Amino acid sequence: MKANPKHVLTGVYYIDGDVASGYGAMAAGCRFIAGYPITPSTEAFEAFCRWGPQVGAMFIQMEDELGSISAVVGAVWSGIKSMTITSGPGYSLMMETIGYGAMLETPFVLLNIQRGGPSTGVPTKTGQADMMQSRWGSHGDYELIAFAPESPQEMFDYTIRAFNLAEKYRCPVMIMSDECVGHMTEKVVIPEADKIDIEPRRFYTGPPEQYLPFKPDPDLVPKMAKAGDGFKLYITGLLHDEKGHPVSNEEYSMKYVKRLVDKIRLNKDKIIELKEENTEDADIVVVSYGISSRVAVKGVEIARQRGIKVGALRLVTVWPFPDEKIAELAKKTKAFVVPEINYGQVVFDVARCVHGQSNIVLVPHGGAGVHNPADIADAIEYAAKTDKQIEGVVEFKTRLEKLVFEGGFKLKE
Amino acid sequence: MEEPTKAIKEIHPDPSATSGVHPMENLLRMERMPHIWCPTCGIGLAVTAFTAALTKANIDTNKMSIVSGIGCTGRVAGYVKLDSFHTTHGRPIAFGTGIRVANPGIKVVVFSGDGDLIAIGGNHFIHAARRNIDMLVICVNNFIYAMTGGQVAPTTPLAAYATTSPYGCVEPPFNIPYIADSAGAVYVARWTTLHVRRLTNSITEALQKTGFSVVEVISPCGMYYSRINRLGDGLDMMRFYHDNVEIRNGEDTKNLDIGFQTKIICGKFVDRERPSYMERYNQWLSEVKGARGEG
Amino acid sequence: MNLITSIFNKGIETSGIERKRISIPSDIPFSPEVIEKLGVDYFHTARGRAIPFGTGLKLGNPDLRVMPVTGDLMTLGGNHFVHGVRRNMELLVICVNNFIYKKIDGKTAPSTANKFSPYSTFEEPFNFPHLGNSCGAVYTARWTALHAEELAASIAEAITKPGLAVIEIIAPGPNYYTDIDDIDENLLKFYFDNSIIKNDTNPREVGITPEDKIIVGRFTDKKRPTFIDVYNVQLGKTIGEKFTPYGVTQTEKKKSGGSDGGN
User: Fold this and answer.
1) What is the pTM of this model?
2) Contacts of B293 by beta carbon, 8 Å cutoff, 6+ apart
3) Mutation test of the interface with chain C: which of B89, B91, B118, B167, choosing the one with the most C Cβ atoms within 10 A?
4) Which chains have 3+ CB pairs within 8 A of B?
5) Helix-, strand-, coil-residue percentages of chain C, each rounded to 5
6) Do A246 and C29 contact (CB within 8 A), yes or no?
7) Where are the domains positioned within chain A?
8) Which domain CATH number covers B96?
9) Is it true that the peptide bond before A322 is cis, omega within 30 degrees of 0?
10) Which residues of B touch C (CB under 8 A)?
């Protein structure tokens, strides 16, 4: 299915990532946004509020993030595509309903513009420390999909893709962007509507009395119905059978939870998107995502000037994690360098897949800023020069760290 | 130096008010100045009134905590020289409840904004009022989320513009005194930042109350609310307050709705006695103990 | 069928609204058989989130009549309640007040009054109708579960109200929704006997105290534009001709269809 031309603001724009994401949501067929203001994500909500009503979409600013995400799940079950937008503290509040959405197999999109943390942290500056929260934040076992765009153009493109995957696999999809990308203003090209593919919702079309809301199709994803069509829906966050009725035995739990994780895990190949560059004959591979991958480009360039064979692997989708790809690279790569704006999150998943076959160097960052590309280059050089096998993850000491902890750096009064 | 006016002298009986030393230096963290508030913002006036009331009420400031949430007014705790807590968004009342209940020797003042206390913190607000937790809540209402750049708030008057109500606000606003009153607050007053003296008196009075007291302070937001709605700067808003505020002490709280640029009714509306949470708790405890023969 | 849901059934029947148009988001787990009988769409939400979930349903499809049924909604959902009322979202909020958190035995909920609960507490309870009224509810009423006739009539009346209506039902704790045999009949009868019908009382005066009888009846019935009404008027004014009123096509359909005796 193609996008509705009425919803696509075709043209060339100079806008920031937040706004691009708002426009992307409209193009993807999102008809409802419930949000709550939080820096640095509000611009996406504002963009949707400005344009949405002109094309028949609805928006509401709820009393808090708990309310926004609950309203989004409600709106999805009323039959329309919905989205919510938040950052740091709001994301933490939404955890309860993310799990609820996963349990109900509700397709919705959540845009999280990450900021410095923990807690209130640094609202106006960047961070990448919610990555593990996005994967494991809500209680219980489930799988979901998370993107990490690196430019406003990608914010537009991957918002659409997020909606498509949400509908395809009936699960919450996260866009784990960050403040840098959200507030980065760049050229964004919005194509014609007939160039944008839209995944329509899989509605059940048979007789209502035969409908089983949680009976999976062969690809493990069930068909959806909406409220008000006489289906007598019984939808619950309790463990449920195919009819949706509560059950509580161990067999059902196994059957249901396994399907929740398998519908993503078994379709990993179709979901995962990676960008590889020169990994074929590289000694060192830089694994990065989001804004860090953009900074890493320069770091890789410097390292290459120093004569090191470096490849780059960019995780466009962070979850599900590309286990096989990393394991395959580990066989021929000397070391992996992982820059991320935290003190080690995704790097441990890399380590899990590398399984001791290569060295792993983390280039950490405490948040509220991005890496210095020279640090990434130095880390690459360090990895290239280290021949002995080092167990675990090596934490590279960056320039900023030396400055802060070893003197020379004076706190601004 | 210019001679302070009579009004300033009255608010600050402290002789240092005329000596070139900042009159509130003993209550403010001067090392944190300059503050982050925009020119023409009204929050500073609310802080002035608060510190003046502290001086007037003659309260042991070592036994007082000030708790703020997130937002422009959320920064108040950071500028006042008491035990200051800058908490997460919407949670100052819950945080203050913890302080007060765990250590009843500490007087708690929650100083935060409308979005923080009434939107995300609305539940804590009504519950603390119901429990009658002994605290003073000073709620600065500027009709908008200013810290995040001018989004619609649950206090934004109908049809007023904000960045997330680009076509005018479609939600009727809360009448904060009414909700506080109906949830059980023992002291409810509303003033604008123009009424510094009355506001000071109100805060002084509320500080003496035992129970959940609410003082709403209507404050201009020159940067967002006034700019988006083309209402001029802070001084214009002050003139507006001057011309459009009607003082009606004891007015029934249900008549206190605020429309877009309509008349604002100020005054002290509720002043009653209700057993506070700790009083009820202690009474309950003695009953239970008595029943068990432990009393 | 059990007591309260049979009352729901009767109320829905009387209102004449097509059952498939009714959605019940609820944080109370109704049994599938009950929902089957009611013939509505049912969503068991996370605790306290029935109202925002219902807000989403209503805004997603304005044609629906949404009836959030909640337990002691004021604990986790208090904020959603006051804001839902303020917006005048078209919902019929049914609050089943059993004075305790039924599912977690004996913990005090905000509406616990000393004499009416085996677990005494020192906290003062909320006066729902007053709180609802003060935030702007168009309809408030309170009945005990034994006021079956009145309650059913109230539901039938309130479900067609344009705006947020609140009905508080005083019911005893144990399993009122699954099996009538489990109800502590004494307690049920105690509530009934200890209540007094006083329609149109000022909601301010209907707080439940251990000393006085529970005042039941319809307290508020007024008109206020709903969220979607205000949205359409305001955006119609500012956007102009380009704006298509939200949800109006369905409303028109509803009017011409006219089978529900709605508003």
Assistant:
1) 0.91
2) none
3) B167
4) A, C
5) 40, 15, 40
6) yes
7) 5-195, 274-405
8) 3.40.50.970
9) no
10) 119-123, 126-127, 130-132, 154, 158-159, 167-175, 178-179, 181-184, 253-254, 274, 277, 280-281, 283-284
Residue C103's SS3 state is coil
Q: Considering only the top CATH level, what class is C3-226?
A: alpha beta
Provide the residue range defining the domain that includes B191: 6-291
Give me the interface pTM, i.e. the ipTM: 0.89
Per-residue pLDDT of chain B (295 residues), as tens digits, is: 455 556 555 555 555 555 667 788 889 999 888 999 998 899 999 999 999 999 999 889 999 999 999 999 999 999 999 999 999 999 999 999 999 999 999 999 999 999 999 999 999 999 999 999 999 999 999 999 999 999 999 999 999 999 999 999 999 999 999 999 999 999 999 999 999 999 999 999 999 999 999 999 999 999 999 999 999 988 899 999 999 999 999 999 999 999 999 999 999 999 999 999 988 888 878 877 776 665 4
Domains of chain B: total: 1
| Bridge pairing between strands A145-147 and A317-319 | antiparallel
DSSP state of B89: T
Spatial separation of the C-alpha atoms in residues A70 and B42, rounded to whole Å: 35
Torsion of CA C108, C114, C115, C117, to 10 degrees: 0
Chain B contact set for A42 (CB, 8 A): 148-149, 151, 163-164
Domains A5-195 and A274-405 in one fold = yes
AA letter at A206: G
Q: C60 vs chain A: nearest CA distance in angstroms?
A: 5
Closest CA to B98 of B53, B69, B65, B122: B65
Q: Give the nearest partner residue to A70 out of C40, C52, C227, using CB atoms.
A: C52
How many Cβ atoms are within 10 Å of A198's Cβ, its own excluded? Answer: 18
**A5-195 has which CATH code?**
3.40.50.970
Choose the CATH number for A274-405 among 3.40.50.150, 2.40.128.30, 3.40.50.920, 3.90.180.10: 3.40.50.920
Domain membership of residue B1 (yes or no) is no
DSSP, collapsed to helix, strand or coil, labels residue C22 as strand
